[in-house]
C-alpha cells in the first residue's frame, strides 16, 4: 500500500571539475528501513531527467522490509523500466541464513557464474 513515510532527503551535486551523466541526485531514504525508496536525477542543465522508486514490501512476521522491484521513469524519452520483478515463490520469508552466509566468503560461495 502507498502511505506517507518519514524520509531523510540527501541532495548530492557533482563535484566541480568531475563528469557524470547526472549533475545532481536527490535520494529519499526511508527512516525505518534505511532503504533509498526514491530518487530524482538531474541532467547537466539541472533539469529533472529521471525518477526512480522502490516497490517496498513489509514483512511483518520478520520485522523487516523487502524491495520487491525498482521502477524508473525517463522523462525525456517517455520510457518506464521495471527491474527485479519478483516471480511467484521467488522470496521465501521463512528461510533463515547462518551468519556465515553474510561474510564475504559466504556471499562469494552463493554467486552464480
Provide a descriptive summary of the structure in words.
The protein is mostly beta strands and about 110 residues long. The protein has one domain (about 5-110). Helices cover about 5% and strands about 45% of the residues. It has one helix and six strands, in the order ββββββα. The radius of gyration is 17 Å and the shape is globular.
Annotation keywords:
mainly beta, 113 residues
What is this structure, in a nutshell?
This protein is mostly beta strands. 5% of the residues lie in helices and 43% in strands. It has a six-stranded antiparallel beta sheet with strand order 1-2-3-4-5-6, with no helix packed on it.
Characterize the overall form: globular
- How many domains in all? 1
Q: Roughly how much helix do the residues carry, as a percent range?
A: under 10%
Q: Give the number of DSSP strands.
A: 6
Specify the number of helices. Answer: 1
Low-confidence stretches: none
Summarize the helix and strand pattern as letters. Answer: EEEEEEH
How large a portion of the residues is in β-strands, by DSSP E? 35-45%
Biggest sheet statistics: 6 strands, antiparallel
Return Rg in Å. 17 Å
Structural class: mainly beta
- Overall pLDDT level: 84
Q: Which sequence of strands runs across the widest sheet?
A: 1-2-3-4-5-6
Distance linking N and C termini: 36 Å
